[in-house]
Amino acid sequence: MFTPLGVLANIANHALTILASPAQEPLNAATALGRPRHYDIQGHRGGRGIAVENTLASTAWGLIEGVSTIEVDNGITKDGVVVVWHDTSITPEKCVDTAPAFPGDPDFPYVGKFIANLTLAQIKTVDCGSKRQEAFPLQLTYPGIRISTLQELFDFVGCADPAHHIQWNIESKIDARHPNRTMDVDTFVSKQSAVFSASPYFSSITYESFDWRTLIAMKAYNPSMRLSALIDDDYGYMPDNSTSPWLAGLRLDSFPGPTQGQQVAQAAHAIGANILSPSAKSDFSPGEDPLMPDYMAFTTGDMVDEAHKFGMEVKVWTVNHFNLVEHVLALNVDGIITDYPDALRRLLKYNNIPAAPKYPKQRVLACLNEHLARQSVTLN
């Protein structure tokens, strides 16, 4: 079985020497770091402000509304299939049971159980499209829609995007704090890598995770894979000052900084990340709006500048307020992950910031209908 431990052993030494290496030139809009012609609008969970999250439907509406990158999450089933889902379990707030996968199945009902403890056949019986989420009152529901496999998602998007222009940001939803709730690092990375490698989208995929062990392991499987290091207060720091289980054995306070923002960027660079993906606001922030006096930022100017110094891009999450969009744009971030890609695109265009063209609505919805029919889902 592959293990990243050999790679991890080298990280501590690398962490101590990163600032001794010559820094790359700072980024700007004209540098050749690979910044796309269009600003990177990432549809969070496909675009959950528009349609039920992490489904073919939310991805479809993300394409229609002009995302440049589809951001989705992956879990691994009991029988080793990569599925598109955010939570470690099938949550009752989002899904309802229909019928058992086979008569007398002792695991039924499935809602409330961990993805890792259910087979794909069991998961495929669950309706995850009928419940509109309270936090997203404009969310389109798709009654009867099922959790899709990553391969099914790739197949659908390939229908809507035959030229394979769309970019992907795919997260491993592994639980470093509770290893009994999800599959292990090697299972996640090997199963995801196999699907990635067989896809025509392989070169368009960024692999992201809060669990930096999976980033290191994925780089060993696929050295050319672009890595995005997710982080916020909760994942970077432990209340008891112990070492976070999420950062592959690193401690942010072991980096020279001198600011917390710089330490975060230095740590992401130490594991070889191409992208730093921090939360826009601090977990401790009482306010949601940066114009409020009680707002506390996690993403700061010194964090962005330090990441750029090391040649990393910075793509922040989850930005759903225009004041916050304008705040992070002023920090020169390279992309924004949002639940409302339609609204973000409108604001960018208003400010003469180029955004990716939208995908033809008629073609996308025709592909959606075709692929949902394979799940026996009938749309009104």
Automatic annotation (TrEMBL):
Could you read off the lineage of the organism from its UniProt record?
A: Eukaryota, Fungi, Dikarya, Basidiomycota, Agaricomycotina
Give the source's domain of life in one word.
Answer: Eukaryota
A UniProt-annotated Pfam family: GDPD
For this entry, the protein name equals GP-PDE domain-containing protein
Q: What InterPro entries does its record include? A: GP_PDE_dom (IPR030395), PLC-like_Pdiesterase_TIM-brl (IPR017946)
Q: Which residues form the GP-PDE domain?
A: 39-348
Gene Ontology molecular function terms on file? phosphoric diester hydrolase activity
**GO biological-process terms attached to the record:** lipid metabolic process
